[in-house]
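Researcher: I've been going back and forth with a colleague about how Late competence development ComFB family protein might be arranged in three dimensions. Neither of us has a model we trust, so I'd like an independent prediction. The organism is Paenibacillus alginolyticus, in case that matters for your notes. Sequence below.
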Amino acid sequence: MAVFNAMETIVMNLFDEFQKNYEMKCDCNTCKEDVLALVLNKVPPRYASSEKGQLFVKGLYINPQLQSDVMRELMEAANIVEHHQHHREESQP
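Model: Here is an independent structure prediction for Late competence development ComFB family protein. You can compare it with whatever you and your colleague have in mind.
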């Protein structure tokens, strides 16, 4: 088993929930990836290298405080990305 940052999975799962309640101005892959990158750079990483570690991190996922913290970071990141988009807008005909 390789070492991985379990927060990536947690953030991506919560991002799916976030999108159900918050409509971003742009939902292109570039903007979505920018939001995820901003959040992952703000939250502390949780690395695991074993099945036991994976189970521990899965237990963290149900922590309401962690979910709240990640959702807050998702909201802040979405606001930043909406005001500073890094993709080219499609030209209008």
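Researcher: What would you highlight for our discussion?
Model: I'd start with this: The mean pLDDT is 85. After that, consider the following. The first strand starts at residue 4 and ends at 5.
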